[in-house]
User: Fold this.
Amino acid sequence: MSIVSDIKKMVATSFQKLYNLEVDAANLTINQTKPEFEGDYTLVLFSFLKQLKTSPDKLGNEIGEALVNDFGEIFTAHNTIKGFLNLTISDDYWLRFLQENFKNKKYGTAPANHQKVMVEYSSPNTNKPIHLGHLRNNFLGWSVAEILKNIGYDTIKCSIVNDRGIHICKSMIAWQLFAKGATPESTGIKGDHFVGDYYVKFNEEYKSQVSELVKKGMPEKEAEREAPIMKATQKMLLDWEAGEPEVMELWEKMNQWVYDGFDVTYKRIGSDFDKTYYESQTYLLGKKFVEEGLQKNIFFRKDDGSVWIDLTEKGLDEKLVLRKDGTSVYMTQDLGLAEEKYKDYHYNKSIYVIADEQNYHMKVLQLILQEAGKPYADGIEHLSYGLVELPSGKMKSREGTVVDADDIIDEMVAVAKNKTKELGKVNDFEPAELAELYDTIALGALKFFLLRVDPKKKMVFNPEESIDFHGFTGPFIQYTHARIKSILRKENPEGDSLKDVLLKPEKDLLLQLEQYPSIVEQAAAEHNPSVLAIYIFQVAKSFNSFYAELSIMKAESKLKKELRLQIASLTARVIASGMHLLGIKVPERM
RNA sequence: GGCCCCGUAGUUCAAUGGAUAGAAUAGAAGUUUCCUAAACUUUAGAUGCAGGUUCGAUUCCUGCCGGGGCUACCA
Assistant:
């Protein structure tokens, strides 16, 4: 139980006792007291004034007095200013909290709640390597899954690989035309990049064929249809659907190259999956779903044979679920996949980490499942996140302004290396240790940068400014952790009981550390790792102030030393476990 | 056209309807015989515009201005 929820209960008790007023603890507003006032937590009184026909000062004083009298082991003082009741929590409370938790390895976790949640994230296309935008998706999905797991959910991370369709055929055609048998092995190019290069080649060739046809007098629309390379691609798609062996073989070969490349990147960034679905294996499932829906009159067939759902009563339009030629659209596949996932896992919740351009699609998906009366429909949640943009605007693959994931990681590692060498603090590290440290710092910086922003909001990535290891960054927090560890290598807290008067930097830290479990809960409830990122940063900042102002090893007394070692210990644990939930490692030294 | 999202210091981000709108960075000024200066301290700087609801609005409502997305028998 957190101190804030305890305060709410005690306040509710006081209202009951003093005014015989039933207040719901959930409706009380408790904030951290602003630094310019005396106190730790503050109760906002305004909402009760009318009801009780009293003045803010009178109410505040009466409640404050009751709290201090009845719960003296928690509250030591109160003051009321302009409708805000500021409460001071006793040092004993904080010391007890510290004593109970500084060794607790499970601090911030919750026991199993027997709820099953699927988190679908990453979900790449197999025609090009992953870029910065995908990284935001990967980091978010992984982190949200870990946060949920941490508070007791049975979590299944999954990915749906888009391994079929016209875009894959484009890479395949271009490879046939231009590669002359080249492979990732023969060229030394990472598989996903290799295939991506042929996707680019396709577009170049396509563009030039179209402009040639236009030059010969063909209308542009027609030229786009008639360009030989496009016709070949469409034929290849048909061949693929017919299972033509040569095409299947090429498809499997090129996809494998991509998977080999993805594996390297996934391993590097720490993405992992309990289950991978492949669209080639699931894209037909939706048809059955549509047939069932037709029988139940949830869908209807138009004269041309296409199948639709009428969502006008829900304020939306009619939505196509099956083409007139009987083939699946995107929605069909997603319906089938949702059903399949539920069959496989019987989840309580299913979270889709998908960019906000698909808000409408996800809304419709859930609506259709609800209309179809599916038991899992209400458990579907769209973790909608904003695009990552560059200072110059949106990333566009056609204009070559995409920040490639592997490239940006390499660049970050190079900067981490230079900076670390400059500082010269770890000259005694073995080469392997050094390489690991550079990776830890580089990925820490990148992940923290992408996770510290509210997922819902789009964000700007400035390649120059974003590679910063100072201030509100991952490395700042990693550095704080390393500093603490360097002390704890020399001496550990002995576990002696504490009794002392807390100094401000000590209390500031304890107050924040106590909030950790609530913060994790909040991050989980909101599917929002940025809450956690901001919190960890504040903890690190508080520790650095504490560290600058007070000596731990040369504390003024044995008791103070023990106290500060315990605080340092818990701080390191909170930082490490919080950063872990963001997928960020923390070094022992840096 | 219809629907949705976003406009906060120079810049990148915060702020369950609550006190004098917080950080970081860039700027200015300091701190190292003292546990790691990737740090700390001080300083200056912002709610697009106009109304409304409220004891109280960055937050809720309306209009305007500016930016983005969706509205495909693409995925």
